[in-house]
């Protein structure tokens, strides 16, 4: 089968110098595994971390990709819930399934947790024609959801659902601030908040503001303006402030978000694309009773909940562009720069 492979790192982000399309052996299923032919895969920022070799060195040679959707072509002898021909999508959170956290339904807190296509390998990820996963790491795609849509949703929908529903415990009628609403997680965050009938203020770069409203945001704010938080505060004033701030931007906008929260409000974060060394005014935490929640991945059940609503056409995947394997370097460069990027980038054999 064909796969996009690299056998050295590119700390300077010169992806073209390390990525190549190679022939590697087709996988065969272990007793508990499902093998499926990939119809579409999606890019995530951890693909860039992998190629940089930082902050976690990944196994080499490496196949990246944590989101894949396709059709089952083989199953192991112990697989009971899938059959050849099923349409499936990956659940990339791989945990031990036997520790206290896992058996308590918190697989995302498993100390042995790894992310498929990022920390796994060598040569085990979504950017290949065929892949294999344990049955517990595969979900069925509902009717009415395409392979492209499922691949675009796999990690980002799960992340957004877990942030808002699993961690922040979103409730109908709240006022929710979605930072970076034009990203994959941001676009799903907007839609999930609207599913809960919340008032949504979304931020983005100036060229994306109209798109944010198309996704369902009630208000769209340019977060590149120095006084962006003043605009958000003015919008949120009739609602008493922000109940939940949904963050993956990090350092540059962190403290401003804290100032916008109501007493007892919640900031939930899943990343730090602008940096991790954020200034924090502790008065906004202890005096206002602010909840700061970290969030990584989620459960397979949460992914299935999100996919259910996709099948009901209440949530949709936003796809920016589609590339083939031969243009993988260009696709990753687009994700890195973010120029004109709205939604997910897909990669296909």
UniProtKB/TrEMBL annotation:
Superkingdom classification of source: Archaea
Keywords: NADP
All residue ranges annotated as the Enoyl reductase (ER) domain in the record: 17-347
SUPFAM superfamilies: GroES-like, NAD(P)-binding Rossmann-fold domains
InterPro entries: ADH-like_C (IPR013149), ADH-like_N (IPR013154), ER (IPR020843), GroES-like_sf (IPR011032), NAD(P)-bd_dom_sf (IPR036291), Zinc-ADH_QOR/CCCR (IPR051603)
Keyword NADP: yes
GO molecular function per UniProt: oxidoreductase activity
PANTHER family: QUINONE OXIDOREDUCTASE
Name the record gives this protein: Zn-dependent oxidoreductase
Organism: Candidatus Nitrosotalea okcheonensis
Highest classification ranks of the organism: Archaea, Nitrososphaerota, Nitrososphaeria, Nitrosotaleales, Nitrosotaleaceae
């Amino acid at each position: 089968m064909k796969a996009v492979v690299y056998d050295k790192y590119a700390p300077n982000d010169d992806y073209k110098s390390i990525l190549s399309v190679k022939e590697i052996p087709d996988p065969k299923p272990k007793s508990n595994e499902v093998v499926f032919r990939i119809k579409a895969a999606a890019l995530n920022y951890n693909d860039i971390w992998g190629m940089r070799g930082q902050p976690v060195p990944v196994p080499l040679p490496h196949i990246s990709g944590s989101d894949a959707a396709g059709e089952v072509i083989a199953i192991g002898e112990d697989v009971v819930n899938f059959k050849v021909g099923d349409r499936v999508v990956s659940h990339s959170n791989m945990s031990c399934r036997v520790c206290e956290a896992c058996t308590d339904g918190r697989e995302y807190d498993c100390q042995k947790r790894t992310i498929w296509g990022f920390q796994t390998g060598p040569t085990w990820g979504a950017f290949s024609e065929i892949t294999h996963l344990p049955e517990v790491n595969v979900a069925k795609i509902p009717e009415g959801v395409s392979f492209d849509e499922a691949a675009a949703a796999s990690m980002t929908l799960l992340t957004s659902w877990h942030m808002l529903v699993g961690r922040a415990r979103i409730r109908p009628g709240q006022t929710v601030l979605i930072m970076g609403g034009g990203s994959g997680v941001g676009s799903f965050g907007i839609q999930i908040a609207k599913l809960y009938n919340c008032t949504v203020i979304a931020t983005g770069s100036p060229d994306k503001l109209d798109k944010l409203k198309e996704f369902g945001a009630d208000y769209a704010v340019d977060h590149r303006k120095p006084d962006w938080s003043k605009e958000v505060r003015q919008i949120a004033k009739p609602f008493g402030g922000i109940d939940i701030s949904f963050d993956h931007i990090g350092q540059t906008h962190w403290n401003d978000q804290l100032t916008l929260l109501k007493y007892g409000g919640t900031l939930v974060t899943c990343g730090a694309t602008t940096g991790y060394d954020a200034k924090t005014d502790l008065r906004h935490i202890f005096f206002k009773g602010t909840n700061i929640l970290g969030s990584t991945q989620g459960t397979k059940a949460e992914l299935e909940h999100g996919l259910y609503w996709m099948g009901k056409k209440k949530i949709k995947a936003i796809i920016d562009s589609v590339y083939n394997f031969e243009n993988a370097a260009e696709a990753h460069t687009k994700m890195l720069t973010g120029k004109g990027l709205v939604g997910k980038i897909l990669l296909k054999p």
